[in-house]
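Q: How would the structure tokens look for this protein?
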Amino acid sequence: MTTTAPKAVVTRYVEAVAEGDLTTIRASFAEDATWTYPGELPISRTWVGRDTIIEDFLGDVGALLRPETVRIRLVSIHADGDVVFAEWTSDAVTVGGVEYHNRCLGIFEVADGRIVSVREYADTGHTGRVLFPNHVVAV
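A: Here is the predicted structure in token form.
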């Protein structure tokens, strides 16, 4: 039986990303979910809607990486009611052959067994240098 406890929902989501389980990834989000990514990168903004998050945000980033090299590992997870703090590592090799290693923190809000919002924090400097090397940040 699948539990809808917030911590279990987020754990299942991160494990699904690690396994490439798109069905579970999609089922993890509410239809009107949001995901906010920090910084001044092409992916930095609040992404609105499950399909936009999965297809545009996660899909666009995924297209920059060699799928067979992607390794996601849940480091820690803590819940306080409907708010879940999850830390994970993301390791991969880009399609251009550059190694990507980042440690991320997501603050997830869960309602009715689905993720309704995520605020992610990561080393956006590293992400920019590795995934978007031609992107110029305004000063």
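The beta strands are 29-37, 45-48, 71-80, 83-93, 99-111, 114-121.

The helical segments are 6-19, 22-28, 50-62, 124-131.

Upvote if useful.
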